[in-house]
UniProtKB/TrEMBL annotation:
<comment type="similarity">
    <text>Belongs to the methyltransferase superfamily. RlmKL family.</text>
</comment>
<dbReference type="InterPro" id="IPR054170">
    <property type="entry name" value="RlmL_1st"/>
</dbReference>
<dbReference type="InterPro" id="IPR000241">
    <property type="entry name" value="RlmKL-like_Mtase"/>
</dbReference>
<dbReference type="Pfam" id="PF01170">
    <property type="entry name" value="UPF0020"/>
</dbReference>
<dbReference type="InterPro" id="IPR019614">
    <property type="entry name" value="SAM-dep_methyl-trfase"/>
</dbReference>
<protein>
    <recommendedName>
        <fullName>Ribosomal RNA large subunit methyltransferase K/L</fullName>
        <ecNumber>2.1.1.173</ecNumber>
        <ecNumber>2.1.1.264</ecNumber>
    </recommendedName>
</protein>
<dbReference type="InterPro" id="IPR004114">
    <property type="entry name" value="THUMP_dom"/>
</dbReference>
<keyword id="KW-0808">Transferase</keyword>
<dbReference type="InterPro" id="IPR029063">
    <property type="entry name" value="SAM-dependent_MTases_sf"/>
</dbReference>
<dbReference type="GO" id="GO:0005737">
    <property type="term" value="C:cytoplasm"/>
</dbReference>
<dbReference type="GO" id="GO:0003723">
    <property type="term" value="F:RNA binding"/>
</dbReference>
<feature type="domain" description="THUMP">
    <location>
        <begin position="44"/>
        <end position="155"/>
    </location>
</feature>
<keyword id="KW-0489">Methyltransferase</keyword>
<keyword id="KW-0949">S-adenosyl-L-methionine</keyword>
<dbReference type="Pfam" id="PF02926">
    <property type="entry name" value="THUMP"/>
</dbReference>
<keyword id="KW-0694">RNA-binding</keyword>
<dbReference type="GO" id="GO:0070043">
    <property type="term" value="F:rRNA (guanine-N7-)-methyltransferase activity"/>
</dbReference>
Length: 700
């Protein structure tokens, strides 16, 4: 009797042992997390390879031992008589999993096993077999658990979930063995006389696996290359007998299986995959909107689907109302049906207002998911009143919105900050731009698990439309991390979609989706007003101008001339568009240049200079790196050379730890007025270090 290790995805242990017990009733089985140990003959191992719909790999145990040093890896592998398993002309590869205190590198572990194998061949034959990582003839698995190493021969070769009918996939594909687990957990496999429907079928994996089940087609029947194909001890007679037996057991399903998708391209892909699996004629394909989809002639059956989860933040807000609408449609058109849905975003399914009957944890690849079962009985089909989610975030957001509504009456703007990580566990900033919201998720601290952070973000997205009454399509989500150099204004999308906003008599074009920043720094609202108030009749220079918002305010304030300088051509063109939007024409000049070198060479004099440099930059367009704390004094010296007597420099930056050397500034002939507290708007008071700002005046 041989010992085999049969592996599976997390969450399939219970299903896998039941499946193997049915396939191999004489085998002795033990279950462990993610695996089943089977004591059986070679025929049972072949049968699992051919018929298992849930397993990943079937591994034959060859040797085992304790590991106290690196040399033990070699010794344990050398216990195997390798020439009895494969020959010199065959290729092999070693996969090594696991580490401990002695062995902390899997590549090193694999190398020691490989050395033991080739050295043994060298002793016996004075020659060595070749290692080949891609499509080797023989695959050896070494698994280290604590101080125990076990060496296996891979009977399956490639993972068993690869059925060889899926040449292409759509977005977020579901693995074949997970699809089978969903079908089993849904209850349909015990009621195959009832209809099965996947209304968002994607590449068709669920319906194809269902058709293979219904037609009793062995999932491994189309595979032509196995881990045991080149194994010296392979018993081909037994294998051919199992193949012939499997072909004879194919039957015709009693009921059609239904597949639907809104995307015609991905539906064509599903049809192609179904043809490859020889089950196309068992599946009825349709192209409809899921929120209008219905099959009038069908009796109640099972809906099993893998709907979109909104893994990308930008998708999440738009999916919430769609799931709410879909929930209502299911209640109207699919009464008494069973529904099983896979998701990594449980909040999405809660929008459907259905009470779950059962939930299962599954891993789809590296993604933690839940399979949620519902029964559309009379109680579940009652339309429920949408109740506002109540949690700490909702309460705080409601208070902020009420306070902002009062405060805005005294302001002249439609863009402001509504929420700024007021509650540490809900670590986002929320900015309003007209009738849009931009939600910036700050990178979660390392001590907050990724799933916890994601759950809180989903709570935020679910609450925003209800509290603010903003259309979910107008909610933009971004992840914000500290940016440096050329990444400071990096693109994150390519929509080129802009909207107009207003602020204190000025209008600006903002792009809420394509960049981490939108084109308007809201925390400088008061600073721009101060520039406007001082600009009348003056020649104004705006350095590091970004999209020229300060230049626009200076021009609206009656500046005699305005010169706008930025290194990015994109932002210079954007600044020109902002001037055109405000119908500004006159002595307005735009320069695309490295501000540092441009200023050193520039000879013209100005009455007011606005400088708001980045904290750090190493752009290829610059002659050297820029560090604001290190280099600001040299910058101000160069600015003084272009400043008229009694002229002003507004100097600002957003480096939280920045320190201004007032004595050094005064030694340059400038008086210093700290405007930081004065220039931080009420909606940014929670973050008093959002920027620093000083007014530097040239006395003579």
């Amino acid at each position: 009797m041989l010992e085999f290790l049969i592996t599976a995805a997390k969450g399939l242990d219970e299903l896998l042992i039941d499946e193997i017990a049915t396939l191999c009733p004489e085998a002795k089985l033990k279950s462990k997390p993610g695996q089943v140990i089977m004591f059986a003959g070679i025929e049972d191992a072949y049968r699992v390879c051919l018929w298992s719909r849930l397993a990943n790999r079937v591994l034959l145990k060859l040797s085992e031992g304790d590991v106290k040093s690196a040399d033990d890896l070699y010794k344990i592998a050398d216990q195997v008589n390798w020439p009895t398993h494969f020959g010199l002309k065959q290729t092999f590869v070693v996969d090594f999993n696991g580490t401990n205190q002695q062995i902390n590198n899997t590549q090193f572990g694999a190398l020691k096993i490989k050395d033991a194998i080739v050295d043994q061949f060298a002793v016996f034959f004075d020659s060595r077999p070749s290692v080949q990582k891609i499509a080797p003839d023989i695959r050896v698995h070494a698994r280290l658990w604590r101080d125990k190493l076990t060496v296996y021969l891979d009977m399956s070769g490639r993972s068993l979930h690869q059925r060889h009918y899926r040449n292409k996939t759509g977005l977020a594909p579901i693995k074949e063995h997970i699809a089978c687990a969903m079908l089993i957990r849904s209850g349909w496999t015990k009621n195959q006389q009832l209809p099965l429907l996947d209304p968002m079928c994607g590449a068709g994996t669920i319906v194809i696996e269902a058709a293979l089940m219904a037609a009793n087609i062995a999932p491994g029947l189309k595979r032509d290359n196995w881990g045991f194909s080149h194994w010296q001890q392979h018993e081909d007679g037994i294998w051919q007998s199992l193949l012939n037996e499997a072909k004879q057991q194919i039957s015709t399903p009693q009921k059609l299986i239904y597949a639907n998708d809104l995307d015609q391209g991905v539906l064509a892909l599903a049809k192609e995959n179904a043809h490859q699996a020889d089950v196309y004629h068992y599946i009825h394909f349709s192209h409809q909107d899921v929120n209008n989809f219905k099959i009038d002639e069908l009796s109640p059956g099972y809906i099993v689907s893998n709907p979109p989860y909104g893994e990308r933040l930008s998708d999440t807000a738009q999916l919430f109302p769609l799931f709410k609408q879909w929930g209502s449609w299911l209640k109207q058109q699919f009464k008494n049906w069973h529904v099983s849905l896979l998701t990594s975003n449980r909040e999405l399914l809660r929008q459907m207002k259905l009470t779950a009957k059962k939930e299962y944890q599954l891993m789809n690849g590296k993604l933690e998911c839940q399979l949620v079962n519902f029964v559309l009985d009379e109680a579940n089909c009652q339309e429920r009143e949408t109740k506002l989610i109540q949690n700490d975030f909702v309460n705080r957001l409601t208070k902020n919105l009420a306070r902002s509504t009062k405060w805005l009456k005294s302001q002249n703007t439609d863009c402001y900050r509504l929420y700024d990580a007021d509650l540490p566990e809900y670590n986002v900033a929320i900015d309003c731009y007209a009738d849009w919201l931009v939600v910036q998720e700050y990178a979660a601290p390392k001590n907050v698990p990724e799933q916890v952070a994601k759950k809180r973000l989903h709570e935020i997205v679910a609450a925003l439309p209800q509290v603010t009454k903003v259309d979910p399509d107008h909610i933009v989500l971004k992840v914000r991390e500290q940016q440096k150099g050329k990444n400071q204004y990096q693109k994150v999308a390519q929509t080129k979609q802009t909207i107009e906003v207003y602020e204190n008599g000025a209008r600006f074009k903002v792009n809420l989706k394509d960049y981490l920043d939108t084109g308007l720094f809201l925390d400088h609202r008061i600073t721009r007003q101060l520039v406007q108030q001082k600009a009348k009749g003056k020649n104004v220079l705006n350095l590091f101008a970004y999209t020229g918002s300060v230049s626009v305010h200076a021009a609206l304030g009656g500046a005699k001339s305005v010169t706008t300088v930025d290194m990015s051509n994109t932002y210079i063109e954007w600044a020109k568009e902002n001037f055109a939007l405000n119908k500004l024409k006159g002595a307005y000049h735009f320069e695309q240049a490295d501000c540092l070198t441009w200023l050193k060479r520039h000879q013209q004099k100005y009455d007011l200079i606005f400088i708001d440099p980045p904290s750090f930059s190493n752009s290829k367009r610059m002659d050297a790196t820029w560090d604001v704390q290190r280099d600001y004094l040299d910058l101000i010296k160069d600015a003084i050379n272009c400043l008229n007597t009694k002229g002003y420099i507004f100097f600002s930056n957003n480096l939280r730890q920045f320190k201004l050397d007032e004595q050094a500034i005064q030694a340059l002939g400038l008086s210093v007025t700290n405007l930081t507290q004065q220039t931080i708007p009420e909606d940014f008071q929670r973050n008093p270090k959002i920027h620093h700002c000083w007014l530097l005046t040239k006395e003579n």
